[in-house]
Structures are given as structure tokens and as C-alpha cells.
């Protein structure tokens, strides 16, 4: 005589089979979806890289324009004037008691204490220091 498994044994075996089948199917679906997910990630990385390149191209163009301007006589004169050089015949004018734009309000913009006022250096001495530092 052959023994027939009980109903609970058969249902348990069927449940185990279905769980294994379900896990296998989920694994296959995940394996099939993985390349598409990776392609999406790569597309986002590519878009980020293109944005960075565009930003760097804009910054490069701005720097090239600045270089071109500084290579002109007007650009050289403008930078020399910012450094305190004067053209022949110009008279320097020093106004005391007026805060500089960076320290307006009594403190530096980043919250650091105001720096001590630098000693005034004559333009000719500044010019020679500049030449020496080149």
C-alpha cells in the first residue's frame, strides 16, 4: 500500500513551490530591468557632465574676453589705475574718514573684524615693487 500525503503536506509543498517560483520570477524581472536603470543613471550623469562643460565653456569665454580686454591699452590703463598708478598730470586725492565699500558698516562682509588701514605707499615705490615682483 502506498501512503498518500496529507492535505497540509501537499499545501505546504505547493506554497514552497509558489514562493520559489515567485522569487525566481522577481529575480528575472530585476535582472531584465537592471540595464534600463543603469542606462537612466548614465543619461543623468551625461547630462550633468554636459552642464558642467557648458558652464566651464562660459567661464572660459568670459576669461578670454577679460584677457583680450587687458591686452588693450584701455585695459592696461584700467588695471594700472585700480592698482593706484596715475597718468602724468593727474593729482591723487585722498579722502580720510570714509569707509571703503568692503568695510562699510564697520565690519568686513564675512563677519571678520575690520582690517587695520594699510600705510599709504607712494605710487612710485608701488610701481618698483610691482616690477620687482614680476
Task: Furnish the topology, listing elements before pairings.
Layout: H1 7-70, H2 73-82, H3 123-133
Offer a few descriptive terms.
single chain; 134 residues; 3 helices; 63% helix
Please explain how this structure is put together.
- The chain has 134 residues and is mainly α.
- Helix content is 63%, strand content 0%.
- It has helices spanning 7-70, 73-82, 123-133.
- The longest helix is centred in the N-terminal third of the chain and has 64 residues, at 7-70.
- The radius of gyration is 38 Å and the shape is rod-shaped.
- The mean pLDDT is 83.
Quick recap of the structure?
This protein is mostly helical and 134 residues long.
Low-confidence stretches: none
Tell the overall outline.
rod-shaped
Subunit arrangement of the protein: single chain
Quick one: biggest sheet? none
In helices, the fraction of residues equals: 55-70%
Amino acid at each position: 500500500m502506498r501512503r498518500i500525503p496529507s492535505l497540509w503536506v501537499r499545501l505546504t509543498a505547493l506554497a514552497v513551490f509558489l514562493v520559489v517560483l515567485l522569487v525566481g520570477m522577481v529575480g528575472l524581472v530585476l535582472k531584465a530591468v537592471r540595464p534600463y536603470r543603469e542606462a537612466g543613471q548614465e543619461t543623468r550623469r551625461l547630462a550633468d557632465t554636459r552642464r558642467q562643460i557648458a558652464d566651464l565653456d562660459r567661464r572660459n569665454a568670459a576669461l578670454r574676453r577679460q584677457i583680450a580686454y587687458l591686452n588693450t591699452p584701455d585695459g592696461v590703463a584700467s588695471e594700472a589705475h585700480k592698482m593706484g598708478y596715475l597718468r602724468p598730470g593727474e593729482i591723487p586725492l585722498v579722502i580720510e574718514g570714509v569707509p571703503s565699500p568692503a568695510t562699510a558698516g564697520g565690519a568686513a562682509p564675512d563677519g571678520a573684524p575690520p582690517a587695520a588701514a594699510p600705510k599709504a605707499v607712494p605710487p612710485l615705490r608701488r610701481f618698483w615693487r610691482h616690477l620687482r615682483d614680476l
